[in-house]
Prior knowledge:
Shape: elongated
Radius of gyration: 19 Å
Amino acid sequence: MLQQAGLDPRKDGAYIAAAPVSPPGCRSEYEYAELSLATPVVSTTLLARLANAVEAGLRLLSLVRMPPWSPEIRTALRARCYEMTCPSVVSGKVDTFLAATHWPWTRWKKGQIRELDIRPAVTEIICLSGRVRFALECSDIAPKPAEVIASIFGLPLVECQLLPITCTGIRMNRQTAYLGYS
């Protein structure tokens, strides 16, 4: 993509670092990436050049010039926000979850059993107008969105993995609040 946009990684010192992508099974409204350049360019010109170079079906929405001391996007990412249709078994389950200090979940992966406490990873959850909105902390051991829904609502994980869950955005750490992400 960089070369299609007229950037030479060797000459311009250009590279792209993507933020962690949405988990498998989640549709995403937004994905984020960081583009670093060693040579100065005009933002509007660069956005137009990059927009012409992305794959069909993708749109570049914005390009923000960051101060050189800004942390990399991978380290600045705090949480991913998700949304889905409320399961029919909602009544009181979210309130019970929010009141809890621990919420154990057993993850089975490659024949290994791992006990997780998903409560600290769910930074926000709300049921409103037939939709569940929640935010999950980004970490190596954070639960997947389907695991959260299965655990909170007491549904089989296999069923939750088939539900349409959409990643609606990201939240950045407080020290990077100047980015303008919500």
